[in-house]
Write a structure and sequence with these properties.
globular, 12 helices, ten-stranded mixed beta sheet, Alkaline Phosphatase, subunit A, single chain, alpha/beta
Length: about 375
């Protein structure tokens, strides 16, 4: 009996109860497909697989097709990730539900978090009402319906809505609220937000909306956001989007490195109880077509670009066919629940991975 008991204990010694995540952070590289990550790392570091993303221990490849197209837009792509439902291009966290364009809202992971009392944040270097951030908190049939998106931002279906909002689109907010005979400042203040343009104000208030029309330093902003959200003992959900479209290749690839540096820093400060994910909503038509080892790729790209008649499409080092593409994108993960990231998967599975990491189940 003693021998049998010892064998039983030995057989179970390596079994560890799965840890639930207190926090979930998803980094979304908008148009950040594998070719873009590859070129961004080599352009910045002159060696392959040189991004921090490349060191993350769990990796999968995600299908990005939408319900009605092989090549998705950001609305349908982010809806799949945030709700677990495929939808048609241009729709945002809503699915077709009848004739004449009728849609029904589908609950987002951020709304699950709000319903359960967690803190929530959305940070982007694009417009705060654009398709990717909007898919975390709004439900519209057309991603360009910014007036409805702003309205839903301030009148959420669950909880008190996103606690920390950082992004561009201040001029759009001014115009949208002026059409309703108010100002953006008054509208956000009425909804309980401290409203401003400097991400530093996040350190001083738990409910903040930072809207601006210019770029901002990413690492101080994400550090301040996490420090504020982490004060909630129940945990938090944070979505960080960074534009990686490479219609301007140098700008887009610089953004790859900016997000990669953010992810590295967040790994240092977020804690072991945090599931961290990186993925893209779709890929993009960028390809490396040349370049010699031993010489900085950026110099080679600039030299090629300086040749008469050279365009993005014909550059012999990095060329761009401007537009979204349909191949799978990478998912990289670390932290509690990251082991579920492996193999080939639909983008809708990311929703279930995040939900499961929190220990939650889908609403029936």
């Amino acid at each position: 009996m003693a021998t049998a008991a010892a064998a039983l204990l030995s057989g179970t010694a390596g079994i560890v109860q799965a840890q639930e995540a207190r926090n979930v952070i998803i980094f979304l590289g908008d148009a950040g497909g594998l070719p873009t990550l590859n070129a961004g790392g080599i352009l910045a570091h002159d060696k392959p697989q040189s991004l921090y993303i490349h060191t993350m221990p769990y990796v999968a490849l995600s299908d990005t097709s939408s319900a009605n197209r092989w090549v998705t837009d950001s609305g349908a792509g982010m809806t799949a990730i945030m709700t677990g439902h495929k939808t048609n291009n241009a729709m945002v966290s809503a699915i077709p539900s009848g004739p004449n364009g009728a849609v029904s809202p589908v609950k987002t992971l951020l709304e699950y978090a709000e319903q359960r009392g967690l803190s929530t944040g959305v940070m982007t270097n694009m417009k705060i009402w654009d398709a990717t951030p909007a898919a975390t908190y709004a439900h519209v049939a057309a991603r360009k319906d910014k007036d409805s998106i702003f309205q839903q931002m301030l009148k959420p279906r669950f909880g008190d809505g996103v606690d920390i909002l950082i992004g561009k689109g201040r001029a759009d907010a001014v115009t949208s609220f002026a059409a309703r005979q108010t100002t953006a400042e008054k509208a956000f203040a009425t909804a309980g937000y401290r409203f401003g343009e400097d991400p530093a104000i996040v350190r001083d208030a738990a409910r903040v909306a930072v809207l601006r029309d210019s770029d901002f330093a990413p690492i101080p902003a994400v550090e301040a956001t996490i420090a504020q959200l982490a004060k909630n003992p129940k945990g938090y959900f944070l979505m960080v989007e960074w534009d990686m479209h490479t219609d301007d290749p140098k700008k887009g690839l610089r953004h790859v490195v900016e997000m990669d540096d953010m992810i590295r820093r967040v790994h240092e400060i977020a804690g072991k109880d945090t599931l961290i994910l990186f993925t893209a909503d779709h890929s993009f038509g960028l390809r490396m077509g040349g370049g010699e080892r031993g010489s900085p790729l950026l110099q080679q790209y600039d030299a090629e670009a300086a040749k008469p008649g050279t365009t993005n499409e014909s550059n012999g080092v990095i060329s761009v066919q401007d537009g979204h593409t349909g191949e799978e994108v990478i998912v990289a993960a670390s932290g509690p629940g990251a082991d579920k990231v492996h193999g080939f998967m639909p983008n809708t599975r990311l929703f279930d991975i995040m939900l499961s990491a929190f220990g939650w189940k889908r609403d029936q």
